[in-house]
Design goal:
Chain lengths: ~290, ~290
């Protein structure tokens, strides 16, 4: 009975164009975030993701201020800064004070771009740009934007899966991987560039401020439940996609609840449940080497 | 954010005259007062924070202020109280969760990321329930110096005075515990209690700074002046004084420039502070080369 109602509800959802495009873009982006987030949590690089989300805000609004498509600014800024962080990474971990000083300034630039953009015209769409970039506007995705976000997400998922094996090796035992001829450094740079691209994708869905929830929570939950790398990776993507679907559904049922809140709340709930009911004694993969 | 005064402010070469023009408005006088209070408090507490490498705890406490302020506005209380309440509760939670109050990078984990994102999401929910997404969230996130009331200045001053009294009382043992916790513990300094008290002080400072800079730009006053001063001198007393001087000058200069400009305070505040930091890094390199 409940299953029937749920199935009927889902069919109704699919009939709504804005919901169809939200699911079309949201699920691939969530799967991508789950995969990339797994590697980030494994390598203790969660704060690089935090930093890249600030860059995403400034990139998107900077592009808008110059009259370019926000997505161009998003991808250029996040991938460039991600790769740069990766290259600096091997020379020792950046100081938290340095990161703090640089990223508060990056946000300051974003605030400037926001005010330039909102002042350039008095239309309501411009005025909402700040809130949309910060908190996402998944129900506002046009068919073209949803399709391109989905295609880019599929391409990035393919890249992650191709480099997953050597990347896993390099993340678990950097020294041995390097000795066996795995290009450890290049993989580190590639991963941070991928995190950047994922931040750019996720900004369009849940917004620059909330994307950390989609990167960190599903991966953290998956690590509570399994220590086998490929199982954890799959669980992380599944949890992320599940949060997306539950969040969209929740915000459809309770219209006053913004979708990005519902998605992050679902992810945080899954994480909380995993911590409470996960296996207490799970073997953690041994981390060696200094992560960036 | 253009200034909302009826007159169009014009910057002339006569700086005294400009200053008189700025201070003609009570809200600007309040902004300068509030800015000074916040800069002194955040400078001193930020100085210890930078020394103790707890920037990310400071970031988390500041982010938690956003749902606090938005929730307070939603239930019809002044945002100030929400900021203080949420930040102090979060500080106690961080301090009491096992392992959470320890120093440094141990906070770098999925937990912190999840908590931060969830806090911001809650703030967004409250703001959108309130219905004032545009002006509401931007002012809470990126700050606003317009419309700071006399009452707010009094609250800021009272909280800052209380926090500074506590800090003055524990300053010496705190410095000892921050520089060498092991030796301090051996000498009978209550290191653990010290770190709990300090986190609460940090929460008060983060909540105060949020009122000027917004919750996202708190580092502009909490981290950058202290980091700049610590680059310039290694002597604790001198670098504390330098931090306060830098913090107050950056805040006042940014308020002054923002008043005459069409662009937001947050941009000027972060840019001036960051420029000084970069200058200090450069000066240090230069001195090292000269030796």
């Amino acid at each position: 009975m409940t299953a029937l109602v749920a199935a009927g509800g889902l069919a109704d959802l699919w009939a709504l164009p804005f919901m169809r495009y939200a699911l079309l873009a949201g699920i691939p982006v969530a799967v991508l975030a789950g995969l990339v987030g797994y590697f980030m949590v494994l390598r203790s690089q969660v704060f690089s993701g935090d930093a890249l989300s600030h860059v995403a805000f400034t990139g998107a609004l900077g592009a808008l201020a110059f009259g370019i498509d926000a997505r161009v600014g998003l991808f250029v800024a996040t991938i460039a800064v991600g790769a740069a962080l990766g290259m600096l990474g091997n020379r020792g971990r950046a100081d938290d004070v340095v990161i703090g000083a640089v990223f508060v300034w990056v946000l300051g630039l974003g605030v400037l771009a926001l005010s330039v953009y909102t002042a350039s015209s008095h239309s309501a769409t411009n005025a909402a740009a700040g809130a949309n970039v910060l908190f996402g506007s998944i129900f506002g995705l046009s068919p073209a934007k949803a399709t391109s976000a989905a295609l880019v997400a599929f391409a990035l998922i393919a890249v992650v899966l191709v480099i997953a094996r050597p990347l896993l090796f390099a993340s678990l035992d950097e020294a041995v991987a390097a000795a066996r001829g795995v290009p450890v450094r290049a993989l580190g740079v590639a991963l941070l560039a991928l995190v950047g691209a994922t931040a750019a994708e996720a900004t369009q869905v849940v917004g620059a401020l909330l994307l950390l929830g989609l990167l960190a929570a599903p991966a953290g939950a998956a690590q509570q439940l399994s220590s086998r790398p490929y199982v954890t990776m799959a669980l992380s993507s599944a949890f992320s996609a599940l949060s997306m679907v539950l969040g969209l559904l929740g915000s459809y049922l309770v219209p006053r609840m913004p979708p990005s809140f519902a998605i992050v709340a679902a992810a945080a709930t899954i994480y909380g449940l995993a911590v409470l009911f996960g296996r207490g004694l799970r073997k953690r993969p041994q981390r060696t080497g200094e992560p960036a | 954010m253009p200034t909302s005064s009826g007159l169009d402010p014009v910057l002339t070469w006569n700086l005294v005259d400009d200053m008189r023009q700025v201070l003609e408005f009570p809200f600007m006088v309040n902004a300068f007062r509030a800015g000074a209070i916040v800069a002194v408090l955040s400078g001193l507490i930020g100085w210890f924070m930078v020394l103790r490498r707890q920037s990310f705890a400071g970031h988390t406490l500041a982010v938690v202020g956003f749902p606090g302020a938005a929730g307070a506005v939603l239930v019809g209380v002044s945002a100030v109280y929400g900021l203080f309440a949420f930040a102090v509760v979060a500080a106690l939670v961080i301090a009491l969760v096992p392992g959470g109050g320890t120093r440094g990078y141990s906070e770098e984990s999925a937990v912190t990321g999840t908590v931060q994102a969830f806090a911001l999401a809650c703030g967004f929910l409250f703001v959108s329930l309130y219905g004032g997404i545009l002006s509401g969230s931007n002012a809470l996130l990126f700050g606003s110096f317009l419309g700071i009331t006399q009452a707010q200045v009094v609250v800021l001053l009272a909280a800052a005075a209380a926090a500074l009294l506590v800090l003055a009382a524990i300053a010496r043992p705190l410095l000892f515990a921050s520089i060498d916790p092991a030796v301090a513990a051996a000498r009978g300094v209550p290191v653990r209690a010290m770190s709990v008290v300090f986190l609460v002080l940090l929460a008060v400072a983060a909540a105060e700074v949020s009122q000027i800079t917004g919750t996202l730009l708190v580092f502009a006053l909490l981290v950058v002046p202290a980091a700049t001063a610590q680059l310039l001198t290694a002597r604790p007393g001198l670098s504390m004084v330098l931090t306060v001087v830098l913090g107050v000058s950056v805040t006042w200069l940014a308020l002054f420039v923002a008043y005459f400009s069409a662009y937001p305070l947050g941009f000027f505040l972060t840019t001036i502070a960051f420029a000084l930091y970069v200058g200090a890094v450069g000066a240090r390199r230069f001195r090292a080369v000269g030796r």
